[in-house]
Structures are given as C-alpha cells and as structure tokens.
Amino acid sequence: MHLDLHANSITGHIPQNIGDLQLLKELDLSDNLLNGEIPASVNNLTSISVMYLDANHLEGEIPFPSNYGQMPLLGFLRLQNNQLGGKIPPNLGYLVSLQRVSLENNKLEGAIPSSLGNLEALTELYLNGNKLSGVIPKSIGQLSHLILLTLSHNSIQGPLPNEMSALQNLQTLDLSFNSLTLNSIPRWVAKLPSLSRIYLAGCGIKGQIPDMLKSTPSPIQELDLSANDLTGGIPAWMGSLTQLYSLNLSRNHLSSSIPASVADFQELGVLDLHSNNITASMEHVFKIGTSFPGGSLTYVDLSDNSFTSGIQQISVGTLERVVYLNLSHNLQKGKLPTSMEKLKALQSLDLSYNKFGFGLVEALANLSHLETLKLQRNQFTGRIPAEFLNLKNLKDLDLSDNLLVGEIPAGRPLSDFPQSCFTGNTGLCGKPLSPCKS
Length: 438
Hints:
Radius of gyration: 27 Å
Keywords: Glycoprotein, Leucine-rich repeat, Membrane, Repeat, Signal, Transmembrane, Transmembrane helix
Domain Disease resistance R13L4/SHOC-2-like LRR: 69-283
Number of helices: 0
Shape: globular
Oligomer: single chain
Family: Belongs to the RLP family.
Subcellular location: Membrane
Low-confidence stretches: none
Membrane topology: Single-pass type I membrane protein
C-alpha cells in the first residue's frame, strides 16, 4: 500500500489516525504546507519502509520510534527542511533497517546520539543545517556501509574521533562551518580508500595546503577548504589532481602566483579563489586543459585578490561553457580583449573595481545570455556602444564611476536601469540621466 500526496499544497496537520494504516509501505507527504507535530501514532506503521515528510512546516520533536521493534522495515527517512526541534532521539538507533536519513535544515540541537552507530545498513546521513553541538561520537566509525556524511553548519566541536578512519566506504565528507578548529587535516582523512569529496570549509585549518592530498587512494573530485587560515601559495602538485571537478580555496590567506601546473586540470568545472592575496597573472587559469571540446569550466571566481594581468589570455578553447566569471576587486588594467565574445554561455560577468580602460568593446554585446554585467569603478572611456541594446536578457547592469561620455543609447534594456547604474560618468547624458545638451 502506497500513499503519495507530495507537492499538492496540502495544509493543516498530519491526521492523528495515520497510524491506523498498518499495511502502508510508502508514505510521501513531502513538499506541502503541513504544520504542527508529527503524530506519535506513526509508531504503529509496522509495514512502513519509506517515509517522506520533508519540505513542510512541521515542528516539535521527532516522536519515533518510542520503543524497540517499532517500524522495523523503515529504510528511507526524509524529514529535512522543516522546523523540527529538540534532540535527535537516541531511539533512532533502533531502526536498524535505515539506509538513508535526511534531517538537515531543521532546529535540532544537542549532541549526535552514539546510538546512531547501531545503524549498520546506513549509507547516507544528512544532519547539516541544525544546531547540533558536542563532539562526533566514536560510534560513527561503526557505520561500515556509510557513503555520505554531511554535518555542516552546526556547532559541533573537535577533535574528530580517530574511529572515523574505519569508514572504508565513505565517499563524501562534509564537516564545514562547525566549531571544530582542526588546525590541520587529520592524516586519516587522506587515507580513506573511497573518499573523493572533501568539504572542510571554516574548520580552522592553518598553514599550507597539505601535500598528503596529492596522493589519496581515491582521486579527489571535489575539494572545499574555503574560509580557513591557509597560507603560502597554491602548490604546483595540485595540477596532478586531474579528476578534480570543483576546487574552492576562497577566503584564506593564500599568496604568491597561480602555478602553471593548474593548466593540467582536465575536468575542472568550478574554480573559486576569491578573497585571498594571490598576485601576478591569472593567465594560467585561462589555459586550463580540458577533455571536453570548448572546456569544462562553468564557474570562475578570482575576485578580491591582487591580480595585475592575465585577462588578455582568455583563450577561445577553454571557456566556452563558463556561465559565471568574476574578476572584480583586482589590479587589472588595459583594454578588454575582443575574444571575450567567444564566451557564448556567459550569464554573469563582473569586472568591477579594476583599472580597465579604453572603450567598452562591442564584443560584449554578443554575449546574448548575459544577465549580469558589472563594470563599475574602472577607467572605461568613450561612448556606450549602441550594440548593448542587443543584451535582451540583461537584468543587472552597473557602469557607474568610469570615464564614459555621450548619450546613453535609447531603448531597452538600458532604459530599464536606474540612474545609479550610470552615475559617476560626468560626460554621460540621456535617460535615465539628465537630457543631453543640443
């Protein structure tokens, strides 16, 4: 027996007599407008194997199981994106058939109960986005089938238990933004045989990027060490991580220049280095090798650094899939290259707070998917090209504080933007600024 009512805008409470459906195997009430508490009668659903109550407005504590032996077949539990509070019930450890538990984005507090170590069939555990505190229980190391563990955005404290080194099947580990203050990445992290996605943002990691990450048993595919206290340069060996898809080293204290070896990345899709002290040229980013024609990069953020050059090396072959490109708050100067018109997929371009000069290149008008264009606080001169009227998808524009002159081309989308998008160009006139003098 299955009951699927998901995404139907249902309001009110879950009926108290829901527990009478003792033959019910799958219950899906997700993505509705349900409120109130989960009725304790769900403990009577002796045949239930799938329970999805996520994406509602449910509150109160998790009421099940109240005793050992209840809900013995429950394998998939989704309660995320509600307003559930209180502690994670220790009795959850009775549900030994659980394979996936999603409790993220609630208001759960207190420590993670050690009884979760009894869930021997568990493969995925989502506890992120709550108010959990205390330390990670040693019993987590007993979850031999665990593939994914995400505990981010809580108040969990360190140290990490060495017992976690027994998680031989773990592929994804996310401990970001807790109160861990690790100082360094535990060596066992780099020795986990299946681990390929490592998220340790905001974990108080200090010093240089550890070279133990260059020879992990399983190739790293995603690495997030952002918002730490990393120093030194980006090591040359990182180019050997040829299966890396996402690299986030933003909000650290990295310095020096980007090594030429980053051009060896073969699969990189996301590169975020913003808010560091990286200097010299960004040219090697634009030379990143790829196994896809037209490139694999889709997201590049190099903003808030001290780059002085490199944009001229934007090459035609490797950035054709870039959707987001942010080079703002750097020290770049000179003229924008006409080769930027090859960035056909670009939706957001931010070059603000640099020292770019000369005229606005008409090539930008060929970026038909562009929704955001921020060029403020540069030294652009001349007129706004009439071709900018071709940017029909433009929703966010800022050309303020440059040296632009002449009449703003009349028509949409330029006429849709307020004065603040054009101010600080003393030679500009026309709507939405003052009329031009004849």
